[in-house]
Amino acid sequence: MLLEVIRKKHPLILNHANTVTQQHVADGISMLGASPLMSQEQLEIPEMVKISQAVVINIGTLQETTLPELILMGQIANQAEIPVILDPVAVAMPYRSDFVKRLMKEVKFDVIRGNAAEIAWFAGMSSQGQGIDADTRIEVQTSIPKRSAQLTEAVIVQTGATDVITDGKRSWRVKNDNPLLAVNVGSGDLLSGIIGSFAAVTKDYLQAGLEATMLMGAAGQLASAKVHNQPGQLMPALMDQLYAITEKQIEQISEVNEE
Amino acid sequence: MLLEVIRKKHPLILNHANTVTQQHVADGISMLGASPLMSQEQLEIPEMVKISQAVVINIGTLQETTLPELILMGQIANQAEIPVILDPVAVAMPYRSDFVKRLMKEVKFDVIRGNAAEIAWFAGMSSQGQGIDADTRIEVQTSIPKRSAQLTEAVIVQTGATDVITDGKRSWRVKNDNPLLAVNVGSGDLLSGIIGSFAAVTKDYLQAGLEATMLMGAAGQLASAKVHNQPGQLMPALMDQLYAITEKQIEQISEVNEE
Amino acid sequence: MLLEVIRKKHPLILNHANTVTQQHVADGISMLGASPLMSQEQLEIPEMVKISQAVVINIGTLQETTLPELILMGQIANQAEIPVILDPVAVAMPYRSDFVKRLMKEVKFDVIRGNAAEIAWFAGMSSQGQGIDADTRIEVQTSIPKRSAQLTEAVIVQTGATDVITDGKRSWRVKNDNPLLAVNVGSGDLLSGIIGSFAAVTKDYLQAGLEATMLMGAAGQLASAKVHNQPGQLMPALMDQLYAITEKQIEQISEVNEE
């Protein structure tokens, strides 16, 4: 498995972060054994990408003026053949739809991680996205993320009570029903950073998406069991687990099914 | 009471946040049962306000270039008749005074939440504001926040060892002497977000300000009792309480007096 | 010692922060008894510096457009003879090298706090900096930070398993081997803010750097002992210690040697 490779190689993960949740994302990457880099300046992007093993672009607090920076970051990563992960926060909102379309004209994403409403947008389904929350009216069907994967040629990681990981051909479902985690803002952003850490150490991005999602689910379960329905304690407890969890624990805890 | 309405309706609260404390603010709104939206891009403000039930503007890390964005946010909210809350961090500083004056020419605020020095500024009293901290030389008199409410036509929530909530006619005092909370940066910002969550589910903004302040005081007391004089543990413990506290607990714990 | 002076005088510490870690930095300064100010707007810099007792500039998330703001902040502080602290995150990267050179042409720094790779850069040693992490290939020799201090005329605080504090003439080594702390993103940024708090209450910046580093080391040890190898619990536990630790505890715990 890949977790031990991360802990041995300490890959550098360059993040264009959601400014709200960036401390958690940086901590999570660090707890895992990888090393977070956060940059907000286009002039240093070329040299930052050059030393990185993965790039994670999160549009949670996107700004129009940063589009050239994100395109540059993605294009250099594409040329260097290092993985580029997209977290398309609230992409079904009209302005964000337009922003992501412009971004995807210039950058090839290797993995896209979002909730059901966000992922459905990539399949051309126009759900009435309600901000950051998944539209629960979309029934979670593997067919939709599969279609999104086929159209984007990216590995899709769709998160929710059941996570779906697919490259359009093969698909896994990972049970991950963790309401205490869902009430913490940024758990999805954190997973996107973790996916970046896994994709940094393999060329098999489907496997990276699967193992990162299994890790997050198992660590979340262990952490939730410790905090006794106190969600304010969960993020620190989750960090403890990202630091300490073993591959054996992940295998034992995860409920994974290939479809 | 309004807390159960929030937990049933999950209103969307759009925040122009203090970037220092925005993770806590977003988490607090989420723990309460509402849903936080954070935006930093003027181009998406119209559609963001349209789906929101309240708007919270915090000037803790204000930038000159964001003034048009804040005016737009406030004006659209005013037209849509959704509540606009102002957190006037350090408004007695000269540049911030000027900034807020320009903002208030264009936007009507429904609730203003600040410490005694900040609230006194709205009553035309020029205290020598010392950054983010309240000027303790201002004796906390209900007459000052009342005057601020009358001049701004906003509900005033003045926080300190005793909180004052007033619309210029009716006034309440809520005992809330919590030194462990005061030493945590952002507890005021968090309350402003919580006030937004309450104002989102009623047209009675005075009642919203009162119930939000009672909730924060009661949750703060319960959390402080748990952490045994360890202020670093308080914010997670406060989040637990925002998630779990009942209206009955709030009524039992709160020391409220109408004047 | 200076800690009691901070707790009595509550100095204002103005920060140009790393946006990733700014909540921890502000909290740490507050827990200690000082008062954090964070600004991102050049127009208010003159009045902000005027009420502050120290200025801390962290380039962790530097942006080209903020250079004039940082120069203004530093120059006004220099003129007012209040201390200016630099945290030169990843300064060995080419763009950041250039940025810091331009900044240092205009601003005199009184204290510079960084890891071994960052400090070596000021001595003219071009290590291949790997992002935010220290290049462990640099053997930690007191001679390098001494040379950096002589060339910059600043007090140098070099952090690592052993911290080195030097003004180029006198040098101390403080044992501070805390892997749980190192895995938390922002512990260095936090120390820079703490150094600012100490430098705010004395003109002896070497003593300020030494006492701040001893405090951080002792508080980190006490906190680590409490969290039982759970690094996610460490930052809250460290905040508890910054709030509660006594000068007597610091003296008893610290392993300090003058060279």
From TrEMBL, chains A, B, C:
Pathways per UniProt: Cofactor biosynthesis; thiamine diphosphate biosynthesis; 4-methyl-5-(2-phosphoethyl)-thiazole from 5-(2-hydroxyethyl)-4-methylthiazole: step 1/1
CDD domains registered for this protein in UniProt: THZ_kinase
EC number: 2.7.1.50
InterPro entries noted in UniProt: Hyethyz_kinase (IPR000417), Ribokinase-like (IPR029056)
Residues given in the record as ATP binding sites: R113, T159
GO molecular function terms noted in the UniProt entry: ATP binding; hydroxyethylthiazole kinase activity; magnesium ion binding
Annotated residues for binding of substrate: M38, G186
Keywords, comma-separated and alphabetical: ATP-binding, Kinase, Magnesium, Metal-binding, Nucleotide-binding, Thiamine biosynthesis, Transferase
Annotated catalysed reactions: 5-(2-hydroxyethyl)-4-methylthiazole + ATP = 4-methyl-5-(2-phosphooxyethyl)-thiazole + ADP + H(+)
Matching Gene3D superfamilies: 3.40.1190.20
Coiled coil: none
Family note: Belongs to the Thz kinase family.
Protein name per Swiss-Prot or TrEMBL: Hydroxyethylthiazole kinase
Organism name: Weissella koreensis
